[in-house]
Amino acid sequence: MKTLAQHRKRLSHRMPTTATLALVGLALGLATTSCTEVHIASPEQADKLANLRGDLEEENALVQYQSKKKEQAKRAGQDADALYDDAEPLRKTPEFQAILKDAKTKVAAVKKVDYIKRPAQTIEACIKVAETAKRAEAVDECIERTPAPEDYDPVKTSAVVAASLALAVGALAALRSARRRIDPVVQAGQKLNLTVEQGQTHTVLTGTYQGTKIKVESSPPEAGQGDRFLRVVVESNVDPAVVVRFGPLAPPSGLDLPDLHSPEVHDQRVPEGYKLRLSDGAKAEELLSGDVGFQLRNYDPVDVRVHDAICAVTCWQVPPSGDRVKEFIDIAVTVAKLYPAK
After folding, report:
1. What distance, in Å, lies between the first and last C-alpha atoms of the chain?
2. Beta bridge partners of residue 307, listed in sequence order
3. Which of 40, 77, 164, 232 has its Cβ near the most Cβ atoms within 10 Å?
4. Which residues lie closer than 8 Å to 173 by C-beta, 6 or more apart?
5. Cα angle at 113 between 26 and 107, to 5 degrees?
6. Which segment of 33-47, 94-108, 120-134, 201-215 scores lowest on mean pLDDT?
7. Residue 206 near residue 215 (C-beta atoms within 8 A)
8. Cα distance between residue 277 and residue 243, in whole Å
């Protein structure tokens, strides 16, 4: 099971060293730039990168267009997957090309407003990324690594850096302790006697619960609303022959979810905006009309994927308390028990 694509595997026992080095590096960097003139990107540089970024919008636009065509086919009573699972023919249609042209123009215009405020050195570096990586996300990540500079007084900046460094180092231990106290996933792990690993980018629980081996992964407590997620993976006692995919047609971005190509099941009980795929002989009654399905709806959007002898249940929120996280873990384990190993 893949984790967040942008996540790096840093666990709690590395936090003090990593954070301290990061603070020292930040302080030295700011102190250095306090005495150095920052050159802002020229209109030509910003325009070049904005156009490159606009060109990279094609894949995002194609995914949205494909989803739209599938919805239209379903409403017309057609086999949406048979018609539009292959997106390549859609790419060549005049309708999509018109949509793409408009999307490129709009994205380029919006991005140029941002790029013109960035350091020239950053824009040049990100131009190389755009030309080589060929991914919109890579360009956006490159830009965000270097915020736009603000006007500052060099002497005041140096003083602030020194004071901030002293305060940050002194508060580091308290921060680590506080993060564990406020993280509801950590609280749930302690209640369930699971091994807790709290890193800077995610929290992981591992161990045995209700006779099954589980792994729980979540975003850190300080993650923003659009970056939160909670995933429970049951790694034992699951039928290896069963494949189930039950969840939103277009899950929120950020998480890599495996493609499962079992036949799609059309049932009026499937919630609007959701898709159900089942391997031959697999059932989903409890997901559609039973108590399990009712409980899952409380975490909408929620995604269930059973494959390769594991059951993964994911939602794009983190419940506010350890008890609520435990409830979600209980639901995931219950879902896994619907497909027991034979």
Report:
1. 22
2. 310
3. 232
4. 16
5. 110
6. 33-47
7. yes
8. 8
3-state secondary structure of 277: strand
User: Could you tell me the pTM of the whole model?
Assistant: 0.52
Half-sphere exposure of 86 (CA within 13 A, CB side): 5
Nearest Cα to Cα of residue 34 among 124, 162, 121 = 162
**Alpha-carbon gap, residue 249 to 178, rounded angstroms:** 37
| Percent of the chain whose predicted confidence (pLDDT) is above 70 | 79
Q: What type of residue is 231?
A: R
4: β partners: 255
Q: Kindly calculate the radius of gyration of the chain based on its CA atoms and give it in whole angstroms.
A: 24
More reliable by pLDDT, 29 or 87: 87
Report the length, in residues, of the chain. 342
CA 151 to chain centre: 33
C-alpha distances in Å from residue 197, one per residue of 82, 189, 204, 205, 292: 44, 10, 5, 6, 29
Distance CA 3, CA 9 (A): 10
Mean pLDDT of the chain: 83
Average of per-residue pLDDT across 157-180: 59
C-beta of residue 214 within 8 angstroms of C-beta of residue 311 = no
User: What is the distance between the alpha carbons of residues 83 and 81, in angstroms, rounded to a whole number?
Assistant: 5
Looking at per-residue pLDDT, the higher value among 157 and 318 belongs to 318
Q: What residues does 277 pair with on adjacent strands? A: 245, 264
The closest alpha carbon to 305, from 241, 233, 253, 250, belongs to 233
